[in-house]
Design brief:
Elements (H helix, E strand, L loop, with lengths): L24 H8 L6 E4 L15 H12 L2 E5 L13 H4 L6 E4 L12 E4 L1 H8 L16 H13 L17 H18 L5 E8 L2 E7 L3 E2 L8 E2 L3
Parallel strand pairs: 1-2, 2-3
Antiparallel strand pairs: 3-4, 5-6, 7-8
C-alpha cells in the first residue's frame, strides 16, 4: 500500500521494498535496472486508489522490463480476479502473463476468508520441487475444510476450467449471464444512490462498475461498495 494510512501499526514492513508511481514505465525501469528487486508486485487495476486503469500496453511493457532485468512479475488480483473484470484474471485482458498471482475475496464468494497464490511451474519447482521441500510453506490453519469447500463451490459456480493447466483462459460465464450480473449490480447500485444529491458519472472501468458521485460528503469512485470520505 502506497498510502501510509494502511501501513500504520502493521510494521515493521518487509525491508528493502520501494513504491513507485502506478502506470509509469520510466519509474519502473529506473528501479529495475539496478537488478536488486526480486519481484514487482502490482494490482492490474488499482481499486483503493479509485479504479485506476493502466494505459494500453503498460503491462506488456512492464512484463518485458521484468524479464530483461530478472524480476518476477507478481499480480495482486485479490480484488480483480475471478471474472470481476471480465476474464478469469484482469491480467489476461491487459496482455500480461504474470509469474505469480494472488487471489482472495471472491474465491469463496465472500463467505469465509480464503486466498491462493498461483505461480508458474519453474517457480513452483524451485520452491516445492522435492518431498522435503513440499511443506516448506505451510500453516496450522491452511486448507481449512470450510474455506476449501466454499472456494470449490464458488469456482464451480463461475465455471473455472482447470483441466488443461491454464485456469480461466476460457470464459467461465457466458456473455448473457455476465451481462445479467452487471445489470443487476448496476440496478442495485442505482437504488442506493437516492440519498446522493448528484450522480456525476456512471459507467465501467475495466468492466468494474463505477460511479462518480457528489453530495454533502466527498465520496470516492465506488466499485460495488461506497467508501465515504469526510469533506476537508
Amino acid at each position: 500500500m502506497g498510502n501510509s494510512f494502511w501501513r500504520e501499526k502493521f510494521g515493521p514492513m518487509l525491508p528493502e521494498t520501494e513504491a513507485i508511481p502506478f502506470d509509469n514505465l520510466d519509474a519502473l525501469e529506473h528501479k529495475l535496472a539496478g537488478k536488486k528487486f526480486a519481484a514487482f508486485v502490482v494490482e492490474p487495476i488499482q481499486s483503493e486508489a479509485g479504479i485506476r486503469v493502466p494505459s494500453p500496453g503498460y503491462f506488456r511493457a512492464a512484463q518485458e522490463l521484468c524479464r530483461r532485468y530478472g524480476t518476477l512479475l507478481a499480480m495482486d488480483e485479490v480484488q480483480t480476479g475471478m471474472y470481476r473484470t471480465g476474464p478469469f484474471l484482469a491480467s489476461h485482458d491487459l496482455g500480461a502473463e504474470p509469474d505469480m498471482v494472488v487471489l482472495a475475496k471472491a474465491m469463496s464468494g465472500g463467505l469465509i476468508p480464503v486466498s491462493a497464490v498461483l505461480m508458474t511451474e519453474p517457480i513452483y519447482d524451485s520452491v516445492y520441487g522435492s518431498l522435503r521441500r513440499s511443506i516448506s510453506h505451510t500453516s496450522t490453519f491452511s486448507e481449512n475444510g470450510l474455506a476449501m469447500r466454499a472456494a470449490a463451490q464458488a469456482m464451480d459456480q463461475v465455471g473455472c476450467p482447470v483441466g488443461d493447466g491454464r485456469v480461466g483462459r476460457e470464459p467461465g460465464l457466458d456473455e448473457v449471464k455476465r451481462r445479467e450480473f452487471y445489470d443487476v449490480m448496476l440496478r442495485d447500485s442505482d437504488r442506493l444512490m437516492h440519498t446522493i444529491e448528484q450522480v456525476l458519472h456512471a459507467g465501467q472501468a475495466g468492466r468494474m462498475p463505477q460511479q462518480q458521485i457528489q453530495s454533502s460528503h466527498r465520496l470516492a469512485y465506488v466499485s460495488g461498495t461506497c467508501r465515504q470520505r469526510p469533506t476537508v
